[in-house]
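Hello forum,

I keep getting stuck at the same step: I have a sequence, I want structure tokens, and every attempt I make locally crashes halfway through. Rather than fight my setup again tonight, could one of you with a working pipeline run this one for me? It's a single chain of 465 residues.
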Amino acid sequence: MKTDIVIVGAGPAGIFTALELIRRGSKKKIILVEKGAAIENRRCPKSKTHKCVNCKPYCHITTGFSGAGAFSDGKLSLSCEVGGDLPDLVGADLVQDTIDYADKIYLEFGADTHVEGISDGDEIRAIRKRAIAAGLKLVDCPIRHMGTEKAHDIYMAIEHYLADNGVELLFGMECVNIILRDSVCQGVLVSDGKTDLEIYADETVIAAGRRGADWLEKVCAEHHIAHQSGTVDVGVRVEVRNEVMETVNRALYESKLIGYPKPFKNKVRTFCQNPGGFVSQENYDNDLAVVNGHSYKEFKSDNTNLAILCSHNFNEPFNQPIAFAQKVGELTNMLGAGHILVQRYGDILDGKRTWAKELARSNVRPTLPDAVAGDITSAMPYRSMLNIINFIQAMDLVVPGFAAPETLLYSPELKFYSNRIKMDTHFNTNVQGLHCLGDSSGWTRGLMMASVMGVLMGRYLTEVQ
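Reply #2:
Ran it on my machine without issues. Output:
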């Protein structure tokens, strides 16, 4: 096949690249390749089976049109201070302007007009004061919450818009490799598991998402695409009663707190807070089960969950941070017999595992019903675990009751976006005709910043002759 532009990955970065090309009036032929299914065909059977059945050939939660965004809590961070390091590459002002632009597009396709996190200033100042006393930094960021069910509808509308405007959507096609000739990217080799297909293009855009970060790292090594090992996040998903988080939920909706706890002083941060939300499971390649969280717009639980992530950097002699995180996940999965592990915070401090009967009589009831009670400290690296424990104790000064004995910790929570691709401000790699976007590029984290990168890519490709 021959096309003008081929985009690998139908997450927000890939979607908004195609969307911006259309909105700019481009007549270029666009092919969008996605390993998973169209959004209307994405269904997680867990709602009926009440346990993860490890869908093959891929997990419907993480793979398909809109990527993990369709089944996430659908939060759009509206500040350039949140969502990765893209401002370092193209400038904070441009990123903030593009956030505002992309936000209007989400509104056009049905996002809620209400913005969270811009409530009473006195409450936010009081929270920040407690954070400073605890040695933490509060990053208050306006949030547009689409909700899990609404995000699905919004991305479906975008999918139909792209198809109606001539974008060729190839679902069930996995990118095997890029096609290189004389150090120029000519396109990609894709496969549906039975038949291989070569797609030749003038411009190739790789937007493989967090799920594709490991694959892209291998492609970079094979074809000498300039990149560097970056940060990998290893952590837990914490779940508490809504009453504990009531003030923070009301004032900020999502409290983004950053600290550097002793003795190691690694960066530790909160991420993806879900008031009234649900803890969920995602499956990656090699049957790796990781924990995540989401929240619906209407349907609420009695609990709030959020991630606490510890950042690790590796340089020499070891420089494979993604592989490190995968090993942590594999060991945790082994202890949980293939399931997510959950443990009470008080049991961690007491040096004992958690038993199912203890969870049954706790105030905090797990919202992930098939999580296995056990001992996450047996698999978590000492450095990561101590950082998390100390960070939780600091959080308790900001949110009293956060470090209660009944607070639940689920493991593993892993974020695979550590491979930082070296690019210029137009996302050109050192390989002519090849661009890398979104979380797999190492420059973004989350829906909005990936969308912004897609918008900027679309603008540039509109001008390329």
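The chain has a mean pLDDT of 93. If your local run keeps crashing, start a new thread with the error log.
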